[in-house]
Amino acid sequence: MNRIIKTVLSVWVGLMGLASCSVYKYVPEGEYLLDKIEVTLPSKSDRTVKKSDLASDYRNYSYQEPNSRWFGLFRFPLRIYSLSGASNPDRWVNRTLRKWGEEPVILDEILTDASEKDMKRALFNSGYLKADVDVKTSYSKRGKASVRYELYPGDVYVVDEIRYTVSDPQIAIILEDNQVHSLLKKGINLDAGILDSERTRITELLHKHGYYSFNKDYISYVADTVNLSYEAGLNVIVAGEGSDAEGNPNPHTQYYLSDIDYYLMDTPNFSSDRDDTLKTIDYKGFRLFYPYDEEKPLLRPSVLDSHSFLREGMLYNTDSVSKTYSSLSRLGILRYTNIRFEPLPGTADRLKTNVYLVNLPKHSFSFEMEGTNTAGDLGAAASVSFMNRNLFRGSEQFTLKLRGAYESITNLPGYSGDTYLEYGLEANLDFPELLLPLVSQAQQRRSQATSQFSLKVNSQNRPEFYKTIFSAGWSYLWSDGWRKSHRLDVLDINYIVLPWISDHFKKEYLDPITSKNSILKYNYENLLITKIGYNYYYSNFRLKSVSPFQYSVRIGAETSGNILYVASKLLESKKNANGQYEVMNIAFAQYVKHDFSFTGNWRIDAINNLLLHVEWGIAVPYNNSTSLPFEKRYFAGGANSVRGWSVRELGPGTYLGNDKAIDYIKQSGDIKIGASLEFRSKLFWKLNGALFLDAGNIWTIREYEEQPGGQFFFDSFYKQIAVSYGAGIRMDLGFFVLRVDGGMKAYNPAGNTVYQRIPLLNPNFGRDFAFHLAVGYPF
């Protein structure tokens, strides 16, 4: 622990030394370091729309931004840059410091003027036709400059009347039928952004009705503004596709798909000019080309037909094209898909359709290694996997994985061994379709579903016991666009067997138990779990998005044992000594469980984000179970929970664990509540920093004698919510995130004294600090 304190102090001294480095080192004489940019709205106007948001919306029109600040406070990237030597800039150290740091942003009056003009233009385009922008720059004696843009938008022009001039009668009918979706409404601002979005909407609408060559340049507007009035009449003009000899506009051409060809190859270097060197199969209105050296095409033609929304003779429709891309992308054997259209020679309204498919290798092997850390016990794990991406020529993905793990166990006296060994074998088979009886091909095509089947066996050998888990699963996965996804576990069977339990463990922990309502004894008996579950996930997160707010929601529900219980009741089966029904002399679990989590991400600026994570869960055992199976219980503490505690060292309630041999079971519960607030900041290179505040705990539904103080009560649970704070460093390599977090307890519900209960008043590193090394972000 002294080493940790010394390390923290060393980092602190280094940061203080960095903070003392001058930020003006690379600011030329007579120039100013840009310190602050403000956009204000000093004027008021009754007719201004969204006045409160106006200033912040125009902040992005500034061509210059001050140097970034860690956590919005410290300009350490600039100070890192300033550490580089000016006398020898090509030295490796100086190049590295400049690469990791940020060059000082010098006030540029030319860019300030350009920003002023762009803000004024943007106001004009938003309907503020008489807007003005005033720039005020202030200079400090220390060489800093601040720029304030003052917006004077004036009154906004609104659309009072909307007219349409459409030269093509068929297009006029389509627009009239879809008028309810128009973005143009009476009373909206005369906003160029809305007008352009409407042009895009109309273009996309017509692309769904066969107008392949139509583009937004055919759409224009004429706005009629009246003097002394802030109302405008708007005429929407949709021009024809050229004109005839007499000057009359020609109607636009509606195109139909024709000559649909699929090219299935293992290389992207091919074209339709090589048709004579490929084998061909005709199937339901399309042709499939594949290499001559293959006896059969890699994919059955029926698979392509069921994953394509393109049909011979149908109107060109971008929706069908997008759905085809999405459906084909679910075929794991394909590397990528490219769909091309071109007018068919000799026809006036036909599109030649080529679908190019490039496949991945059919077989692959992979090997993985990882380090493990379970409550301070270090170990390693390795796995080898074999994958067949096309088992039955329908892109069925078969995976076989063998895994082994070793961990050294400390502080476990009284047992013959001190190692933990784990072996696992699992087989998974995924079908890119909905495998259900009486489902038509059209329904299969619309479902965009995947059917999963799995078989697993896992053996855990500990000094206290041996445990083997046999599992079998049957699930369906499907999505609604890129935001929503669903998972239905039709049946997930787990058979848990304990073939051996140490005599010392029995004598010490199990034999003294007399209560039937014991979580400890329940979790050291053979058990059958027959789970049925559903999970829903929604997210609008996108990589490199500049959206000010993104969020995700996950909702899950599962249950087990209900069908077996009803069948046992109807058959009048006998119960065992613990009052449980059995299947083939094995008791089965019966419970219901619900989980919820929410993660919100507020983008503060280019390098700073504030994230909020909230989660809860509840599981209730009933009828055939007095306790939850160990695999279904909740835990608190660790790298992804309340980080002031090590994994599985918090709760339930005010319970304080004192026996490492069984605390991993005792410190578990039926209810979980948690929340985290995390401020993330880009530091330099690939390093990110975080400050966090965590809160939460777990509880039991019932009172268990092994977990005193662990039961949930509405009138007191809020007093038992643990709180911790801390900081972390993350190395983000894109495909891999290595995370180091250090958490300190702030409020410990299991503390006996005031200082133990509120460590924030008297922090003690040896007692209150928890270190976490993890892969990936906590949420």
Our count of helices gives 16
The assembly state of the depicted protein chains is: single chain
Share of residues in strands: 35-45%
What's the β-strand tally? 29
The 3D shape can be described as: globular
Structural class: alpha+beta
The pLDDT mean sits at 89
CA-to-CA gap between the ends?
Answer: 28 Å
- Biggest β-sheet: count, sense, barrel? 16 strands, antiparallel
In CATH, what is the homologous superfamily of the domain at 633-779? membrane protein fhac: a member of the omp85/tpsb transporter family
Name the helicity range.
10-25%
Radius of gyration: 33 Å
**CATH fold label of the domain at 633-779:** Porin
Short summary:
With 779 residues, the protein is α+β, with helices and mostly antiparallel strands.
Task: Characterise this structure.
With 779 residues, this protein is α+β, with helices and mostly antiparallel strands. The protein has 16 helices and 29 strands. The chain has a 16-stranded antiparallel beta sheet. A five-stranded mixed beta sheet has the order 8-9-7-11-10. A three-stranded mixed beta sheet has the order 1-3-2, with helices on one face. Strand 10 and strand 11 form a beta hairpin. Helix 3 packs antiparallel against helix 4. The longest helix is centred in the N-terminal third of the chain and has 18 residues. The protein is globular, with a radius of gyration of 33 Å. The two termini are 28 Å apart. About 3% of the residues have low confidence.
